[in-house]
Amino acid sequence: MKLAASFLRSVRPALGNPLVRPLQPIRWARYQAFEAEFDSEELERARSWHKAFDGSQLPKGQTTTESKAVTVWPVKDLLPVLPKLLHRGIRESKYYTARSDSLTLQAQTHRQRDANTEENQQKLVDEVKRIFQETVPGETSPDKKKKHAEIAKSFNEGRLKQKKQLSSKKQSRRPSFD
Question: Could you cite one Gene Ontology molecular function of this protein (predicted)?
């Protein structure tokens, strides 16, 4: 959840209008695998956590009034249950309330408060899964890693070749004093 929250804060413009998003740079070429930017140990921890995650580990929150269910999960209760890579996204979630440092979810689609509370719990699980999908990249296959290594190598060789050609061109312009 923190991941989603942090992601949303990072893409929101300074004015705070959530409907207007700043321009995002477009990646045309990558010379390394996407997961190379992350700590491999943290990635492995997050991936193993995701395989076992079913939402039952999350705290249940507090509910109030009639059929409308407002469920509040303090962030301090959620963070110990989530991997470190997701912490930032929780506070950037659309459900994050800065004043109380918690995630606040509301539902009143059902006539029973219990059903609305369960819907809020499902919203929390969905939000955590969404944050995970946005934050943790998929595993890079050995073939792709090899491909990126070859691309980087050929790029470097081309750069050096071009540099040598430019150097020899400049060298040929110099008068020789033999």
Answer: translation release factor activity, codon nonspecific
